[in-house]
Amino acid sequence: LPVVGAVYTLHSSAVGQAADGSAYTDW
Predict the structure, then answer these.
(1) On the CB side of 15, how many CA atoms lie within 13 Å of its CA?
(2) What are the tens digits of pLDDT across the range 2-11?
């Protein structure tokens, strides 16, 4: 769960999305 939380935090930010090259905007 901590890992899932970190991934959520990463992808819920525009910087995280850009760095990952993905669009997790609905997370």
Answers:
(1) 2
(2) 566 666 666 5
State the Cα–Cα distance between residues 1 and 11, nearest whole angstrom.
Answer: 15
Sole residue written with tokens 């090259």: 21
Where along the chain do its domains lie? Answer: 1-27
- Token look-up 């990952």 returns 20
Q: Is 23 helix (H, G, I), strand (E, B) or coil?
A: coil
Output the six-digit token pair for 4: 């899932």
When pLDDT is averaged across residues 2-27 and rounded to a whole number, the result is 60
Rounded CA-CA distance 18/1 in Å is 23
